Amino acid sequence: MALKLQHAKIPEGKLLVGGRWTAGRSNTAMDVIYPGNAEKVASFHGASAEDVDGAVRIARQALEQGPWSTKISPAERTRILWRLSELIGEHADELAELETVNTGKPFAETRNIEIPLSAEIFQYFAGWTTKIHGETIPAKPGMLNMTLREPVGVVGVITPWNFPLLMSTWKIAAALACGNVVIHKPSELTPFTAMKLAELALEAGLPEGVLQVLPGTGGEAGEAMVLHPGIDKISFTGSTKIGQRIMQLSASNLKRLTLELGGKSPNVVFADADMDAAVRGAINAIFYNKGEVCSAGSRLLVERSIKDEFLEKVKGRAEKMLAAQGDPLSPKSRLGPQISQNQLDKVLGYIEKGQAEGARLVFGGGRNTDAGPGFFVKPTIFDGVVNDMCIAREEIFGPVLSTIAFDQVEEAAALANANDYGLAAGIWTRDIKKALRAAKALKAGTVWVNTYNVFDAAMPFGGFKNSGFGRELGMHALDNYTELKSVWIDLT
Ligand code: NAD
């Protein structure tokens, strides 16, 4: 049954190479499914290795001979990136609907949170173009040393399906602000907003060839990008497994890498916390975007003295979420389906494994067929989890909360850190000293105190340990997309 959309048309499945939309030459067709009803909305051939090669040739020409990197002023770059942010705002309904169709996120979330945030990212980086500069350094007498900050060159951007537009803007806006040229490969599951973004970028005045979009599969288009000698850097967000693969493949050509990978973040609630605020925080931490969030607070560490009361309240809120789970295109839906059949099976598999390992299911635990024919999983809560269970160690990427009790502050930090990932963490307490001690002790790239999942374009974000390296957003993102050159001048 055809989807009835109010704001958007399903885009034609094409690649933007140079300034032209062309058909992909991969032999295998990619199906795009609406997770709300599990039906196909589009099917097309994505980029082949040959398409990647063609795009790289155009990108190198745009970098070396086009205006973007060296010929136009930084102020003109600001103007174009700012205009793009305005266009994202003007097309917010359409972008939000496309994102919902691709991902199954409730329209209220895409329209009110993710699309406006994507516009803000372009505004923020538009402001940086005129402020990226080197320095002069006191060196030997009779010598002048100065540094130049130059674009890295052609940047391959590879993005995941969980926040398709937002994750793309983190990379593309920063890379373009620094004067780079970008080839973007969105996830094969969620190509629509990447296509729309590229169309709007041309409308904003971005020269042709500066942002190209190659929808395609990871194994074919993604690997071809990683292996291509004409791409100087890969900026990747996705799973740790694929991040490791990309690192291995790029060892041969020493490509620069930024890797934003998975997580299994602890959300630590002390007995002296504002309980209602912490309950709301715990719910938002695990159930926002149906748990398909890299920084999801999927391990709830609660001080034993308040654990039962706390979990009772979390359960009460989860009941309300369950009641509001339904078709993501409906304005009433507050909790969507998982992105795909694969993801549904994976999450259900973990729920079974948790029970088999001896964790106690206190809420949810299974598919929610009442919500519709899509890939809906009930918000699920486990108690009695111990750190060596799979549901405590591995990234589930679904609405499944694993509760672990602790008795002492030091024990909480040790438990929180006893995991291969280190993306984010939450702390809930009224004691500022305890909060700061814990914030220092936690091995995570972001620590939220009395809040969770708050983001801002100016805040650096990235992982410790198996959650990757490099920081996106904020001024530190500029390091990802520039090379520093040292210039010596003899003054004698
Ligand atoms: P994924 O690793 O399966 O895919 C990510 C991207 O890589 C896709 O575009 C895919 O096509 C491509 N890809 C797959 N195989 C490839 C290969 N061999 N070579 C090159 N590219 C390849 O991840 P996903 O399932 O799309 O996304 C979910 C994962 O992303 C989760 O692990 C999540 O934690 C992580 N994530 C991390 C952050 C962060 O900021 N740290 C943010 C969002 C998502």
Structure description:
38% of the residues lie in helices and 21% in strands. With 492 residues, it is an alpha/beta fold. It is globular and about 70 Å long. The model has no long low-confidence stretch (mean pLDDT 97). The structure holds nicotinamide-adenine-dinucleotide. Nicotinamide-adenine-dinucleotide (NAD) is lined by residues 158-163, 167, 185, 187-188, 217-219, 222-223, 226, 237-239, 242, 245-246, 260-263, 294, 395, 397, 423, 463, 467-468.
Secondary-structure content class: alpha/beta
What are the distinct ligands in this entry? nicotinamide-adenine-dinucleotide
C-alpha-based Rg, rounded: 23 Å
Q: What is the rounded distance between the termini? A: 79 Å
Total separate domains = 2
CATH superfamily placement of the largest domain: Aldehyde Dehydrogenase, Chain A, domain 1
Q: Estimate the strand proportion.
A: 15-25%
The largest beta-sheet arranges its strands as 14-15-16-13-12-18-19
